[in-house]
Amino acid sequence: MGNISQIEPTAIWANFQKLCDIPRPSTKEEAVLQMIEKLADDNGCSHYRDSGSNLVVNVAATPGYEDRKMVVLQSHVDMVTQANSGSSHNFDTDPINAYVDGEWVTADNTTLGADNGIGAAAMLGVLCDKSVEHGPLELLFTVDEERGLTGAMNLEPGRLQGEILLNLDTEDEYELYVGCAGGGDLVARWQYSADTVANDLIARKIALTGLKGGHSGIDIILGLGNANKLMARFLRPLLRDLDARIVSIQAGTARNAIPRESFATIVLPAENAGAFDRALAAFQDAVTGEYADLEPNFAIAASNVDLPESAMTPADSITFNNAILGSPNGVQAMSTSVPGVVETSINLAIVSVADGQAKVTLSARSSISSARDATRDVATAVFENIGATVTWGDAYPGWKPNMDSEVLDMMQAVHRDLFGRDAEVKVIHAGLECGVLGSKYPNWDMISFGPTIKRAHSPDECAHIPAVARFWDYLQAALKAIPAKTV
């Protein structure tokens, strides 16, 4: 463990340490925004917050670069808050304990926040490092990206003056992103019937753990285990054949993270305890065999707990579990225009059952708006079929690629000069803010890039130190190569 601020380039890592020191869950970014404002003041830069609570810092051109097109550098300051079970970390009050592990920086049993903290730290490096050569800049720090892109959605149009947007929120070096998926959530709420629990029943708490989880857009193509789907699969024969009933379920914590863990409490007749134990062991073996190298740490275990006063009725237990099992999840369609890219997906993200109320949150993504909403319709039909009330969250747009982009040509030229090869040009199956920002500022020429970050949105998140150094070199070279304004 320890301070990471001395890693080279310190222009990024010292600022990333500042971000790690300040809790910054979505909707709770005030302290980190105040820190950035102080840095802006210390460096003589004006700043303002717009009506969407986004922070803009104006940075004057370095001498000799005043004639360049104005660039908007953009990152979001909030982070996904995921911790391993058993961790006592409080994301509202505790700093992120980042440390070096070989060539990587990771965190102690929590998400690291490199998504999008490394991008934000690079922007602070540009702000504070006077050796960086650049034209006029607007540093746009958006808020609440991870919860629903609401900072970008509420960005004030017409106020920013830049012509080029460099988004620093992708996670593989040697790649340039020119398009992304749009998305939209839905929430199903269902009131279930419960009755009293007889004394001849036993209660078991089931813990399904050890899945990798990950980003529900980027990692959805990997076919990783979804804790909600696996728990429903395990429960189905128990509810059907062993007279089990659901007491509670809690699984998943973020709409945009593949759920890693599920915890369910059930009751069942005492004489079925042996059959339950055999089913548990058989399920462990089956899933371990099916997922093999994908989920090597998968585990399912159960413990005896005190009998609750009530449980979901047998009929409602089966009805609800069938809906979870039958809900769409994962890749729904691959792109026909960009080989190897997911076009449409949905993540069965969060399941909560307690005190007569069940709540299920799903998040759909697609590069085609109609396909996104058609997928939400399928999920809606599943849950409406059991009598649930389903509400849709606001959808956000995708980002249509522009292969004739001037900034793309410029970034490729810089990439060849710096690394001796072209960058891969890609479209990402994730909700980059570029789609929303471009709808507010359709004149912007946009590109997105970043260093290598693995396992974002999970406690295994890590940032590759050599890649961050190359990213910093690339960002500096790109800023230096921005073309002059047209007269």
Summarize this structure briefly:
The chain has 487 residues and is an alpha+beta fold. The chain contains twelve helices and 25 strands. The protein is elongated.
Number of strands: 25
| Proportion in helices | 25-40%
The helix/strand class is alpha+beta
Continuous helix count: 12
Low-pLDDT segments, ≥5 res: none
Radius of gyration: 24 Å
**Major sheet size, sense and barrel closure:** 9 strands, antiparallel
What average pLDDT do the residues reach? Answer: 96
Report the portion of residues in β strands: 25-35%
What global shape is seen? elongated
Main traits of this protein?
25 strands, elongated, 6-stranded mixed beta sheet, 487 residues, 12 helices, 9-stranded antiparallel beta sheet, alpha+beta
What does this structure look like?
- Strands 9, 11, 13, 15, 16, 18, 19, 20 and 21 form a nine-stranded antiparallel β-sheet that branches. A six-stranded mixed β-sheet has the order 1-2-6-3-7-23, sandwiched between helices. Strands 4-5-25-24 form a four-stranded antiparallel β-sheet.
- The chain is 31% helix and 28% strand.
- The mean pLDDT is 96.
- It starts with 9 loop residues before the first helix and ends in a 6-residue tail after the last helix.
- The longest helix has 19 residues, at 273-291.
- The relative contact order is 0.19.
- The chain contains twelve helices and 25 strands.
- With 487 residues, it is an alpha+beta fold.
- Helix 1 (10-21) packs across helix 3.
